[in-house]
Design brief:
It is built from 21 helices and 14 strands. It has helices at residues 2-21, 27-44, 73-81, 85-96, 130-143, 172-190, 206-218, 230-247, 249-263, 267-291, 301-315, 351-366, 380-392, 425-439, 446-459, 471-474, 482-501, 517-527, 529-539, 544-562, 571-595; strands at 58-59, 69-71, 113-119, 123-128, 156-160, 194-201, 297-300, 321-324, 327-331, 339-343, 370-376, 398-404, 407-408, 467-468. Strands 7-6-5-11-12 form a five-stranded parallel sheet, sandwiched between helices.
């Protein structure tokens, strides 16, 4: 029995040591470790039967009154142990707390755990000491924007996103893709990864041939160079082409002839393609600059098409790649992935034959260890097919598709370039900027607030959920909006400026003064930030960033409304609270930065 008690005591000591010294290894993981060791100790002592222990879940409880962390391990072990969850939870609590009431303060390692409680129907709730959180304030102030950053990783990651098609307008749906991809780039870089941001431009294909056909047929005498809003014009031409081709079989035949001329290298048609292609590329560049988005590498579909043609003879000798009724397909039926056409029977190259060499190029030329592609949900099956083909070809790499749902018009109608009912990104941004100028007439940076409002609205919804974008909702100063969070940051900056005007030095603070419930609640929310970064790295759920920012802003506003920050009659409390809100400012600004949203000092 003594050996068992010693083991349990060491486990508890081990828990405290790591909880206090290492914020960068999540507290959740440390609780998982001590719970795992507690189960093993009980099995070793023959108190519980032998069984394989699955990963233990440790999460934040639904309400702070239930502790700082909670685990449902007792409910998961009920059948394996053969006892009721509450009884299992009590046994684990006793095991973890053995010798807890002894004089552990003599230990050189500071203790972090205040108590463990059992709650029906079998939860283990962990409460950390206030001192643990109070000390986080100084750590955040010292580390600044580096708070939550992790050690440099060896793995190099490429994130491919945006992927607009030339000859079509860049619309609000494209913005959702860009914002998700850009946030992932920022989060993975904060995680310590070397990240390459990549863009794959769709500058060839059927849609371009349709657009060129309509230009030749319906606008042959037009001076294209004199055209204003060139990309808007191309978008309308494409929509016009689709409608006329669908309405008349003769137009369908004419379009196919234009497509063959383009693929055959017709000099005049290629020149028209190059001219109009550049219009789109210039537009994309201007939009990215306005959004503050930068790419490290660009890929072009027209180039990968040539690479696909080169590897085609080699592919035909591989299993699952076969000819079928004049077309070339990959038959993946045995993997429940159906059939994907790589080359049509008319000889035209499809996306799959371009994505195969592109995947190989990413890993061979850029020496990456993981490729992440942000693309809409319609392409889920397609990417499963491409990844399976690559695997069958012996190319077994870490390939991930991050899918996102569509952005709808306010009335619920889906946007489509074919229908011509898209919301152009430029017009949307301009409209939001005008509304921000009206709402915040004294704002020195209305463009930043407008872009923040759009980004926030498109990021706050899970990527797997459709969005019905509402401009007026996005710019509200209350609720789950970008301006609401930005205002929290600006409000803190205003308080800190007042402290500076009063020459109130808060470089030194007594954190024991941070003891009010709303103060501690605020610090506890700050403590969650590093774990948030790690979670997003694991599951790519960037919507957690705005959710966290909203909650942190909520808690700050609640704290500020109830507690006086600058109190000249109690300077000790003032210093500690100024230090606290400065930590909030740091974390709030960094959360916004990861989203690509500005943190204004004035609204």
């Amino acid at each position: 029995m003594k050996n068992r008690i010693d083991l349990e005591f060491k486990l508890f000591d081990y828990f405290y040591f790591f909880c206090f010294l290492r914020y960068d290894e999540a507290m959740k993981e440390e609780i998982q470790k001590i719970l795992t060791e507690a189960v093993k100790a009980l099995q070793k002592a023959k108190a519980w039967p032998d069984f394989t222990l699955e990963e233990i879940q440790v999460d934040y409880p639904s309400e702070e009154k239930f502790g700082d962390y909670a685990s449902n391990i007792a409910m998961l072990l009920a059948k394996k142990v053969g006892k009721k969850p509450l009884e299992i939870a009590e046994t684990l609590k006793t095991t973890l707390k053995t010798e807890f009431d002894s004089d552990l303060e003599s230990n050189s390692v500071k203790l972090s755990l205040e108590k463990i409680e059992v709650a029906a129907p079998g939860y283990l709730n962990f409460y950390l000491k206030p001192e643990y959180f109070q000390e986080k304030i100084e750590e955040i102030n010292q580390r600044g924007n580096d708070w939550g950053s992790l050690e440099k990783k060896k793995e190099k990651v490429m994130i491919e996103y945006s992927q607009p098609n030339t000859h079509k307008e860049f619309h609000i749906g494209h913005l959702r893709n860009v914002f998700i991809g850009d946030a992932l780039v920022n989060v993975l870089r904060k995680n310590g990864n070397e990240v390459m941001a990549a863009n794959y431009i769709g500058d060839t294909g059927t849609h371009i041939a349709k657009c060129l056909w309509a230009l030749e047929k319906f606008h042959p005498e037009e001076n294209l160079d004199a055209r204003e809003n060139k990309t808007e014009f191309l978008g309308k031409i494409y929509s016009e082409a689709v409608q006329k081709i669908e309405a008349d079989p003769q137009n369908q035949e004419e379009f196919k002839l234009v497509q063959k001329r383009l693929e055959g290298g017709d000099i005049e048609l290629v020149a028209l393609w190059q001219k109009t292609r550049q219009w789109s590329l210039d537009e994309f560049k201007a939009i990215y600059e306005g959004l503050g988005v930068k790419f490290d590498v660009y890929f072009y579909e027209s180039e990968e098409e040539q690479a696909g043609k080169k590897i085609l003879p080699e592919l035909l000798g591989k299993a699952h790649i076969e000819k079928s009724e004049g077309a070339i397909i990959a038959n993946l039926e045995e993997y429940n992935l159906g059939v994907i056409v790589l080359v049509r029977k008319d000889g035209s190259i499809l996306y799959g034959l371009k994505d195969l060499p592109l995947a190989q190029k990413k890993f061979s030329e850029y020496k990456i260890g993981k490729s992440i592609i942000v693309a809409d949900v319609r392409q889920e099956l397609y990417f499963k097919q491409i990844f399976k083909i690559l695997e069958l070809l012996g190319f077994k790499k870490n390939l991930i598709h991050v899918a996102y749902e569509f952005v709808s018009l306010k009335d619920g109608e889906s946007m489509s370039s074919r229908k011509g009912n898209v919301i152009p990104a430029k017009k949307l941004i301009a409209e939001v900027i005008e509304k921000i100028k009206q709402k915040f007439p004294e704002s020195p940076h209305p463009e930043e607030i407008a872009l923040g409002a759009i980004r926030f609205s498109l990021l706050k919804v899970s990527s797997r959920t459709r969005i019905e974008f509402d401009i007026d909702e996005s710019i509200k100063l209350e609720g789950a909006t970008g301006p609401y969070v930005q205002y929290a940051h600006a409000r803190i900056c205003s308080i800190l400026r007042k402290a500076q005007e009063k020459n109130l030095d808060f470089s030194q603070a007594d954190y024991a003064k941070i003891a009010e419930e709303k103060e501690l609640s605020l610090v506890k929310e700050l403590h969650k930030f590093p774990e948030l970064v790690e979670e997003i790295v694991q599951d790519y759920t960037v919507h957690k960033l705005p959710h966290y920012a909203i909650k942190l802003a909520d808690k700050f506003h609640s704290f500020y409304n109830d507690l006086k920050v600058i109190d000249e009659d109690n300077l000790a409390v003032s210093r500690s609270r100024l230090k606290l809100i400065n930590a909030v400012k740091i974390v709030l600004a960094e959360t916004l930065r990861l989203m690509g949203v500005s943190a204004p000092e004035k609204m």
